[in-house]
């Protein structure tokens, strides 16, 4: 790599031109500091893939320079890649108390907790990493204990916002450090990296308190069970549900593994207050009068195996949704999840429940954790950066964020819309886009990390669309002659009796082998290739389908 | 079937508890009249399926009774199943002039046009089918020439609304027959079937004219090319684009097969007026000054092979989107298509275009063709039905539509929320839900219609997630002994070198065969079953993956 000695480099290993797998890096002299290490969930085209994490080859190659991983908050798109990161790089992880709680759950699952070096920080912590001093500021978001990060470098101050909105009446009363942000801005910010998720949306994000008011009003009106589904990590929202249940004299049951786990961490670490004796076990629900029970559950995104989906189809053992129960889906559907959520809503209505659903603006039961345009402009105004890199978003979001920056005074030409891997270097106060570092998607498929590539996915696509036909041929090694009738097997191709087609495929195979035999073109590879070709064409002509054709030659 | 002589039966073969494949039936005495015959597009879980159409077994079984297919309008979810229907049932098809134009395109593709009996009707037509008189009324929707249908039966009047909104200022000046609806209502409606698509949305649908105003304003401001993507069948919207282009002195090019085909039908049949000499061929675009050109194209739903997607990636031969061009996506994304659309928006912004996108309420470039709650209430108020069946919608939509009906006076208990196949019978003025008729989804997969079922889909799912491992064994017929090393092949499983795993699989196979041999449990089936089992377990333990295991036994 052509990095200059002492140049300050900024780049992303993930998070640009995508939503998910956030991972940013600040490199100065002999140190690389990583900010966040998230995962991303695959879209439907990535068949069989469980997770996507950033390709970390560059870091592994520069192992000795990687000094720290700083984590801004505990959402999956910021912590989901950490176990895979720590398997390759033994580096201290800095995060707040709540964030560490969630990271620990993950490391336990991967049996990595013991050997990992986890360092608790808070917004007043100060770190020295190589020649950089690092400090922090609190931001408000949809999970507790979130940080923005300031790198005080010899070149100047670099600020990373983390994920944020400006909630002036946060439900947990933990305010953002607006004064600290103003101070940093006054001191001078050379470069700001700010998140762009809602850069397309005009206005200011509504306060989380709005959700609390709607939840409480709904609890007040309900005269049977109330079931609330939300993100387990949104502890402010969970707290507001707890409060509403308490106010209406209800006990509370928790359903779903992540709800149980995360609430336990939140209570234990002091982020959530639940009155003594309020929590009950699921099996106790049926023993109580319905107007005395509330349920908090996972599955607000329509995940087919989560608690809400199972409740909606009567498949949650021991817990039933009954007519006149109230179900609140206190979360907007993340793009791509709409159909899963609405099919659950259909099922809940069919059970006779009252269902409150929809985006936050229609139901009042959700607000975004990501700042809208006015929030973003406020951050830019406070920080007054010379240079700006919009991060954490797809291209149109980054694009809109640039326009916002320019509207509040960032000079045209001083915003860098870059890709993962593009490096912005700063030297003598001047930023330039220079080299690139290798980046990419690493696919996690079961225990397979990084071994799934283009070929496998192409095969899976073909298999998923039209299945496969195998033709098994036994030929004699010496004379290259068929020793038996070919055998044809299919999977995922048709449920129809295809004996007719099979007969023709076998005939075609025999003819092909005989022809090749006559022409003396009877090597293993030529035979396979030729059989594949003729059968593919035959099958397509007769069925308009294109299954994978696998000729298997047994030579005896 | 237990139908009583002269009972009036109403049921759906598709369209209830789903969006798509609309097909309703009115059966009286010796006649079954079908209303619409649509298709539905598969969701991602139906691997390899191209289309879904209603299972028509009941109609085939009662072939002699099926007297007519009446088509309310030309959208795919109302006409897409017609070719498959006509292959099984030779029945006259009644539709308006524009609708017939679209049906003819379809029948030509299926080489069915010549033998089909297509009968043109309009809103003043009157048909006599068996003992039923059938008349029609015009409704406004997002495609020209739409009908509602009235069945005058000895039991009373049955009304089917078709798809509708109340647009009081329709862009094509073709008003709905509100007076006729009022008359029918006054005469008396025994049963109303009304569409429910937007029953969840409060208010009144905005007028199509709103889109025209926004389109025109955008054309006025644009100083380079303007590209508009919309549904080809929304001729009112196409007309408004034509008008805006004309007003700003632009020529117009059409891109995308369905845009070219449908616009041709619309011009030829008098539904669209394009000034002489205005249309240009795609290759002429580059010869003209950019401010003199507009483009109308397909692909507003993000379809990966349609014109807009190809334009956005620079893959439309001869046509380029250049910086400062304006792209209008004049259509809201249908649920499920959001991500495809936004990825096109990202690409367009990256090309430097100004992009106007989003739901209609944010961009002003789309209004729904389906009535909101106030539209639905107006229809119910005009018709004053005794009985009501909400149709054309998922459960929550039908549920909300019932509440709307009750709010304007339909008696509680007189609304039937039914499933496809549930029959409502009316006798002596009393409606009851009685028998069911067989219904279902017929999958179209290439040339395969109805042969794809549960097994194939289950196999495709497994293949798509973890691929497959084949183990080929050659054993001697007599001694049941292995005649060679087993051979292991995989597809869609891993891109990793899996020689280690393969070696172990082969060893395991040999061991399994030897054990079975010793135990004398060596029949073909036992061997295959046992090998499958041991390899499945081994592979899962070592990779956390569950590929399809296919043992192939060659006996020699």
TrEMBL record, chains A, B:
Highest taxon in the source lineage: Bacteria
Native organism taxonomy: Bacteria, Bacillati, Bacillota, Bacilli, Bacillales
Binding-site residues, Zn(2+) 1: 73, 75, 77, 141, 163, 392
Quaternary assembly: Homodimer, may be a subunit of the RNA degradosome.
Enzyme class: hydrolase
Protein name: Ribonuclease J
Residue positions of the active site: 195 (proton donor), 370 (proton acceptor)
GO biological process: rRNA processing
InterPro entries per the UniProt record, alphabetical: Metallo-B-lactamas, RibonucZ/Hydroxyglut_hydro, RMMBL, RNase_J, RNase_J_2, RNase_J_b_CASP, RNase_J_bac, RNase_J_C
GO cellular component, one term: cytoplasm
Cofactors that this protein relies on: Ca(2+); Zn(2+)
Key words of the record: Calcium, Cytoplasm, Endonuclease, Exonuclease, Hydrolase, Metal-binding, Nuclease, RNA-binding, rRNA processing, Zinc
Protein residues bound to substrate: 232-234, 366-370
Cofactor binding remark: Binds 1 Ca(2+) cation per subunit. Seen in 1 crystal structure, it is not clear if it is physiologically important. Binds 2 Zn(2+) ions per subunit. It is not clear if Zn(2+) or Mg(2+) is physiologically important.
Record's signal peptide: none
Alphabetical list of Gene3D superfamilies matching this protein: 3.10.20.580, Metallo-hydrolase/oxidoreductase, Ribonuclease Z/Hydroxyacylglutathione hydrolase-like
Family statement: Belongs to the metallo-beta-lactamase superfamily. RNA-metabolizing metallo-beta-lactamase-like family. Bacterial RNase J subfamily.
Pfam family of the protein (one): RNase_J_C
Annotated residues for binding of Zn(2+) 2: 78
Residues involved in Ca(2+) binding: 48, 50, 445
């Amino acid at each position: 790599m052509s990095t200059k000695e002492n140049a300050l480099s900024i780049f992303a290993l993930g998070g640009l031109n995508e939503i998910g797998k956030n991972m940013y890096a600040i490199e100065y002299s002999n140190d690389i500091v990583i900010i966040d290490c998230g995962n991303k969930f695959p879209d439907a085209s990535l068949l069989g893939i469980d997770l996507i994490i950033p390709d970390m080859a560059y870091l592994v190659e520069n192992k000795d320079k990687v000094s720290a991983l700083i984590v801004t908050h505990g959402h999956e798109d910021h912590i989901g890649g950490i176990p895979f990161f720590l398997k390759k790089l033994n580096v201290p992880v800095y995060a707040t108390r709540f964030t560490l709680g969630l990271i620990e759950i993950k490391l336990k699952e991967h049996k990595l907790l013991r050997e990992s070096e986890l360092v608790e920080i808070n917004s007043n912590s100060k770190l020295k990493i190589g020649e950089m001093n690092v400090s922090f500021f609190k931001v408000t978001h949809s999970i507790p204990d979130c940080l923005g990060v300031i790198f005080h470098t010899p070149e100047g101050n670099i600020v990373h916002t983390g994920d944020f909105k400006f909630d002036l009446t946060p439900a947990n009363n933990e305010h953002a450090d607006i004064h600290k942000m103003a101070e940093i801005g006054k001191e001078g910010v050379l470069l700001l990296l700010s998140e762009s998720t809602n850069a397309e949306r005009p206005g200011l994000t509504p306060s989380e308190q709005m959700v609390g008011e709607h939840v409480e009003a709904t609890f007040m009106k309900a005269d049977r069970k109330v079931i609330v589904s939300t993100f387990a990590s949104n502890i402010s929202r969970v707290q507001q549900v707890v409060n509403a249940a308490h106010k209406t004299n209800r006990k509370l049951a928790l359903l779903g593994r992540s709800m149980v786990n995360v609430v336990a961490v939140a209570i234990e670490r002091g982020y959530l207050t639940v009155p003594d004796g309020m929590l009950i076990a699921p099996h106790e629900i049926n023993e109580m009068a319905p107007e005395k029970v509330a349920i908090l559950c996972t599955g607000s995104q329509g995940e087919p195996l989560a608690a809400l989906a199972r409740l909606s189809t009567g498949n949650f053992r021991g817990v039933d949704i009954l007519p006149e129960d109230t179900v609140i889906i206190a979360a907007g559907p993340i793009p791509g999840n709409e159909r899963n959520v609405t099919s659950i809503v259909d099922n809940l209505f069919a059970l006779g429940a009252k269902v409150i659903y929809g985006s936050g603006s229609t139901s009042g039961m959700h607000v975004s954790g990501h700042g809208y345009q006015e929030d973003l402009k406020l951050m830019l105004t406070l920080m007054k950066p010379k240079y700006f890199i919009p991060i954490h978003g797809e291209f149109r979001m980054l694009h809109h964020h640039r326009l916002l920056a320019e509207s509040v005074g960032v000079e045209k030409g001083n915003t860098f819309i870059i890709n993962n891997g593009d490096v912005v270097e700063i030297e003598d106060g001047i930023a330039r886009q220079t080299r690139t570092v290798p980046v990419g998607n690493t696919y996690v498929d079961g225990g397979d990390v990084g071994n799934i590539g283009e070929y496998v996915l192409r095969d899976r696509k073909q298999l998923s669309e039209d299945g496969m036909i195998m033709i098994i041929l036994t030929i004699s090694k010496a004379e290259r002659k068929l020793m038996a009738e070919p055998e044809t097997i299919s999977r995922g191709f048709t449920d129809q009796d295809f004996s007719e087609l099979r007969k023709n495929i076998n005939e075609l195979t025999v003819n092909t082998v005989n022809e090749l035999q006559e022409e003396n073109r009877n090597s293993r590879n030529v035979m396979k290739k030729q059989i594949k070709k003729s059968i593919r064409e035959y099958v397509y002509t007769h069925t308009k389908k294109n299954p994978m054709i696998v000729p298997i030659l047994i030579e005896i």
